Model the fold of this input.
Amino acid sequence: MLKLVEPTAKDKPLFDRMAQLYSYDFSEMNGWIIRSDGLFPSIKCFEEMWGDPNRYPRLIMIDTEPAGFAIVRSTGQDEFDMEQFFILRKYRRAGFGRDAAQMLFRAFSGRWTVEQIAVNEAAQSFWRHVISDYTDRNFDDTDDADPIQSFNS
Done:
């Protein structure tokens, strides 16, 4: 059963390890370099989320197994941005990412933006499909330097 779990301080090591997997996935697109200690540099929002009242981290769980994470950021009154979203490879293309994203859209009702980097075509396809299904094709899609979808939930 898929569920979203608000992490506590005891979940920080798990989040940190999954952030490394996230960084590994992105390294082929953005050229991130692994440090001499075998780790990727930390990503600022992964540290900031623990004390920032405008960030809402969630572990994506399938039964008791971690399957990914999300960080939703409040950008204003009833305005949200999908700051980070990650599904472990073994759970991709099985509907878990779609279901988790739509659970987040329902949990944080308001105006949403979801941005992808231009070179991440797989993410663009995923988000356009998920958001189109969720909104019954009622969303804005700007394709400037980096694609951004906007919609109301």
In short: The chain has a mean pLDDT of 93.
